[in-house]
Amino acid sequence: MSAVLTPTPSSAISLTRYLIEEQRAGRINADLRLLIEVVARACKSISIAVGKGALGGVLGDAGTGNIQGEAQKKLDVLSNEILLEANAWGGHLAGLASEEMDTSHPIPDVYPRGNYLLLFDPLDGSSNIDVNISVGTIFSVLRAPDGVSRAEDKDFLQAGTEQVCAGYTTYGPSTMLVLTIGHGTHAFTLDREVGSFVLTTRDMRIPDDTKEFAVNMSNQRHWQPPMQRYVADLLAGQEGPRGKDFNMRWVASMVADVHRILTRGGIFSYPLDAKCADKGGKLRLMYEANPMAMLVEQAGGAASTGRQRMLEVQPTGLHQRVPVFLGSKHEVETAVRYHHEFDAEQP
Ligand code: AHM
Ligand code: MG
């Protein structure tokens, strides 16, 4: 019987080699290359902590809350510390911002500073940590404004179009890093024996059309009229105006839901609802929506608030929330059309 498991071939392209080749091609500089390497290394440490589960004593609540008023899990806090510690000393950053911290985090004075800003949601999908379902880290990189070496909150308030890099790591059956530096979206799988991310899908492509949607249906009664109508038409299936049957998936870990969409298409939405209307939405623009929007657009998909291209939203706050629609291009355009049609009917 032939072996089922085969070692990673020596010809495989590691993340390090991919980044060096991108640097040679003039698409990134050495600082950004090293910054991505440091983030990837931190994600490997988070992957190890997540993988230990109950054996590592890392499950359960931390007993603290974040600025959004959400209870923090031990792994939220640990992942945040791992990313902060790993990125403080490299000399590539003018500042960091995290979903788990009230304000941006300056680089300690003992270390040199650089020209980039790093933003992250250290462990997204917190409600899934204790039940052994995929969670992930989401990150993006901006340039510090000219002349800024010690970034303040306002320096991070740049539209998503300014991102020079975005990515996530999904801690699932395998650990994968999905990355864009503005030249396609590429997936790397962690070879746990070697400890190295290996390029496994170059140029992920999201099909334009789909028959799969992702939304938390329990919020249905709280949605606005255009979302109510859009999903009612999806559910009506072949007999309805869409003329085809749709399937539904909802992991409640954005990283896992977006990873499925990058792999086989679909639409992900977390719309405005009556519960989160005063906050502007549920998901965070800077740590979740914008990085995912860049990854999805780079794979041929689309990302919108329902009324505006996500990457063109001008942020007004570090922890700003937005409605999110992203994935297969034609399906996102359809959801946006429902919003525009509703708006046009308003007096
Ligand atoms: P988190 O950053 O606190 O984990 O919240 C974000 C998560 C997303 O990963 C996911 O899409 C969504 O919240 C799930 O929300 P809900 O539990 O309302 O379905
Ligand atoms: Mg999150």
UniProtKB/TrEMBL annotation:
Cofactor note: Binds 2 magnesium ions per subunit.
Amino-acid positions noted as binding substrate in the UniProt annotation, renumbered to this chain: 124-127, 216, 282
Gene Ontology CC: one annotated term: cytosol
A GO MF term: fructose 1,6-bisphosphate 1-phosphatase activity
Main location (coarse class): cytoplasm
Enzyme class per UniProt: hydrolase
GO biological process, one term: gluconeogenesis
Highest taxon, organism lineage: Bacteria
Subcellular location: Cytoplasm
Catalytic activity: beta-D-fructose 1,6-bisphosphate + H2O = beta-D-fructose 6-phosphate + phosphate
Ligase found in the keyword field: no
Sorted UniProt keywords: Carbohydrate metabolism, Cytoplasm, Hydrolase, Magnesium, Metal-binding
Cofactors, names only: Mg(2+)
Binding site for Mg(2+) 2: 121, 124, 288
UniProt keyword Metal-binding, yes or no: yes
Residues annotated as domain Fructose-1-6-bisphosphatase class 1 C-terminal: 206-339
Subunit: Homotetramer.
Sequence similarity: Belongs to the FBPase class 1 family.
PANTHER family: FRUCTOSE-1,6-BISPHOSPHATASE-RELATED, SEDOHEPTULOSE-1,7-BISPHOSPHATASE, CHLOROPLASTIC
Protein name: Fructose-1,6-bisphosphatase class 1
Gene source species: Lysobacter enzymogenes
Gene that encodes the chain: fbp
